[in-house]
Write a structure and sequence with these properties.
This protein is α/β, with parallel strands linked by helices. It has a single domain, classed as 3-Layer(aba) Sandwich (Rossmann fold), CATH 3.40.50. The chain has seven helices and 14 strands. A hairpin with a 2-residue loop joins β3 and β4. α1 packs across α2 and α1 packs across α7. The chain is globular.
Length: about 250
């Protein structure tokens, strides 16, 4: 059971913020699709968010494309990272700050991400693209050439981390994107969870260097909803990419 906290018109459809009566967790929904599920302690219940944070563990200056409720931005800011969020929807920042306790240090810009990146003279340690609807990445982030250009311009020496929604029973859209990026000569690893209810896949892309060395840490300190996803996360790469090595895992106790 949930109660509605607010309803607003968004650029991509009606936005609703709901609160679960059982535990106070808050949901950010667009057209009925859940974009954010944040627990009262300000931590995401989505395993893919925790995976993205782990992949960006060594990044101090991060750019996020797509803000949603801002749970990942807040989690990154809490560990001391400098976080800039780009979101084209004018309604998004107010909702993140008013209903999801967005960390005060997060820099949030309502702007076209492509225009920002083309005109930005600085680079970042990592870029996270989390701009999905129920069918996958929204345009233009569903185009491999655009994704590759973002990597080369915004974080040429760092990591590009992409959330990809995977439909149950459908061919892996993330696998297609991974193959296309690998064919452009990039180092690519697609992480896919073999268990749990989440349909999200995570792409880790670099100009060079390993992308398949995700270390899952502190499982006992993560929300129960996220543990199954993280424990069953496995690396995959296309035949055109570099072969995946055995995944590292530590700190599971």
């Amino acid at each position: 059971m949930t109660r509605e906290l607010t309803r607003r018109d968004g650029l991509f459809g009606p936005i609703r913020v709901l609160e679960r009566k059982s535990d106070g967790a808050r949901l950010y929904c667009i057209n009925g699709s859940i974009q954010t599920l944040m627990l009262p302690e300000g931590v995401s219940a989505f395993g893919y968010v925790h995976a993205a944070k782990l992949l960006a563990a060594n990044a101090n200056n991060l750019l996020m494309i797509g803000g949603g409720g801002g749970s990942l931005a807040t989690m990154l800011a809490r560990r001391g990272a400098r976080v800039t969020v780009l979101d084209i929807d004018p309604a998004a920042e107010a909702i993140a700050r008013d209903y999801f306790d967005l960390h005060e240090s997060v820099r949030w810009l309502t702007t076209d991400p492509i225009v920002f990146i083309e005109n930005c003279s600085s680079t970042f340690d990592a870029v996270i693209i989390d701009a999905c609807d129920s069918e996958g990445l929204v345009s233009p982030f569903n185009q491999p050439e655009i994704v590759a250009n973002i990597l080369s311009k915004a974080c040429p020496h760092g990591s590009l981390i992409v959330n990809v929604v995977a439909e149950d029973g459908a061919p892996s859209w993330g696998g297609w994107m991974a193959a296309k990026l690998a064919s452009l000569g990039l180092s690519v690893c697609l992480y896919r969870s073999e268990e749990g209810w989440e349909g999200n896949e995570i792409l880790h892309v670099r100009v060079d260097g390993p992308t398949d060395q995700l270390a899952i840490t502190d499982l006992d300190q993560r929300p129960p909803e996220a543990r199954t996803y993280l424990m069953s996360l496995r690396p995959h790469v296309s035949a055109q990419g570099r072969p995946a090595q055995k995944r590292k895992r530590d700190g599971e106790g």
